[in-house]
Amino acid sequence: MRFGLSEEQTLLADSVTRFLADNVPLDEVRKVASGESSDAAVWQGLTELGVPGLLIPEDHGGVGLGSLDAVVVADCLGANVTPSPFLSSAVIAPTVLVAAGQREDLLGSLAGGEIRIGTAFGEAIGARVDADVKVSGGKLSGKSLFALDTHADHFLVATKGKHVYLVNASDCEVTDLPTVDRTRTTCEIKYNNVAAELISDNPDVFTEALDRARVVMAADTLGAAQHMIDEAVAYAKVREQFNRPIATFQAVKHMCAQMTADLEPCRSMVWYAGHALDNVPEEARLLACHTKAHLAEVGRSVSKTATEVHGGMGFTDLLGLHYWFKRCGFNRQMLGVPELVREEAARIQGLAA
């Protein structure tokens, strides 16, 4: 029995990686992060590769692949700190619309990159003192914080009861709300009796989308952390002190070895979590929680150690290592911090009320 990616998935990863290497160099990432450019051109290129339609059925204009394929792509995007709305438009939105069987007319436009759908799920995951969403008579009022994709055409908004509504971005007051990770946009959305279409009142639809998003985000962290290890090892081989490469120092060897030992088991964990989403439903929810939480912790540890290997150079924009560091930090916080996600896992296992 073979445990690993299929030939098709390996070719998919190679295609995405080649595109990113040719079209999204670090200088382009800097421009997007600084606001000089947007992620529109990157997303158009990924659209030509079929990335937005990965999880959309073929009869709706998509590619019709599965969660593990989305995990493979997310790994590549994280490794290149790619600016894109992949998590919201290619993962969460298609999952909700397909699972709910609503507004399937939007799926073709999503797959073709003609529209982008952002997501505001924060209020259904963890209560915030200064944000809440109320629904009355098919109208939304209130505020969402840290919604994904400032440039979206529509937003899927989840309430505390895990009901999901679709709103037009043009009907809302959308304000950019930057985080440490400037490669992906987040925003504050204010609703003033905004017309909202009920997409799903079934909490299972919200949960399915959240689980898939958490595993994909863990894969993004995996890719970012692996890149930081590779950069640390490469730097240690050429940086010299006392007329010898620092890679020959035992302390530096131990740091690099420890990072690799911590991260490598995460690869099979992420792959299996992606596989379970579509094939082992009885394990999928618990695996999604543990995978998101564990990669958040390992990602933070690896990003910190890799920066230390670089010494003072690790903090400079010349190397740009901080983009991957911040990517791991953003992924740790978004869609549930490790403590909250582990609490959910404990409830699933009956270990907490």
UniProtKB/TrEMBL annotation:
GO molecular function (one): acyl-CoA dehydrogenase activity
UniProt xrefs under InterPro entries: AcylCo_DH-like_C, AcylCo_DH/oxidase_C, AcylCoA_DH/ox_N, AcylCoA_DH/ox_N_sf, AcylCoA_DH/oxidase_NM_dom_sf
Stretches assigned to the Acyl-CoA dehydrogenase/oxidase C-terminal domain: 205-347
Keyword Flavoprotein (UniProt): yes
SUPFAM superfamilies assigned: Acyl-CoA dehydrogenase C-terminal domain-like, Acyl-CoA dehydrogenase NM domain-like
Pfam families attached to this UniProt entry: Acyl-CoA_dh_1, Acyl-CoA_dh_N
Domain spans labelled Acyl-CoA dehydrogenase/oxidase N-terminal: 6-113
Top-level taxon of origin: Bacteria
Transmembrane segments: none
Signal peptide residue numbers: none
Required cofactor names: FAD
Keywords: FAD, Flavoprotein, Oxidoreductase
PANTHER family found in the cross-reference section: ACYL-COA DEHYDROGENASE (PTHR43884), ACYL-COA DEHYDROGENASE FADE28 (PTHR43884:SF20)
Family, as annotated: Belongs to the acyl-CoA dehydrogenase family.
Name by which UniProt lists this protein: Acyl-CoA dehydrogenase
